[in-house]
């Protein structure tokens, strides 16, 4: 966050969210339009150049957003049980997303994305407040 603090959290959250949205949109490009697979990951999964750019945007935006949330966490005044539940949801979501790539449980990504999304929908609006 910037030193002046005038609207910085809100602007930074919006910028990070735009990077995440751009990355997700690039990851939704159909496989036929992406080009050849540069790095095979598992059966049915591989990383193309388009996927690499989308993953990079998603990683930068997600990390930036995570840093913003962690830095503002003391100011959110959430009870310990709520913080634990949100952390558990986010961790479970990320774990299921990663596991869906490396296992045969392809549709587990939807469950992981939903649980991670719930945690994000609670924390991000609170972080964007002044």
From TrEMBL:
Organism's domain of life?
Bacteria
Q: Does the keyword Transmembrane apply?
A: yes
Keywords of the record, alphabetical order, are: Membrane, Transmembrane, Transmembrane helix
Q: Where are the transmembrane segments?
A: 12-32, 52-70, 82-102, 108-128
Q: What is this protein called?
A: Major facilitator superfamily (MFS) profile domain-containing protein
């Amino acid at each position: 966050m910037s030193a002046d603090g005038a609207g910085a959290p809100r602007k930074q959250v919006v910028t990070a969210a735009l990077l995440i949205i751009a990355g997700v949109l690039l990851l939704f490009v159909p496989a036929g339009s992406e080009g050849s697979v540069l790095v095979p990951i598992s059966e049915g999964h591989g990383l193309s150049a388009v996927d690499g750019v989308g993953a990079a945007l998603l990683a930068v935006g997600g990390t930036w957003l995570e840093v913003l949330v962690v830095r503002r966490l003391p100011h959110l005044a959430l009870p310990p049980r709520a913080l634990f539940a949100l952390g558990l949801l986010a961790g479970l979501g990320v774990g299921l997303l990663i596991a869906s790539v490396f296992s045969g449980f392809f549709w587990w990504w939807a469950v992981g994305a939903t649980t991670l999304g719930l945690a994000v929908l609670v924390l991000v609006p609170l972080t964007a407040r002044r």
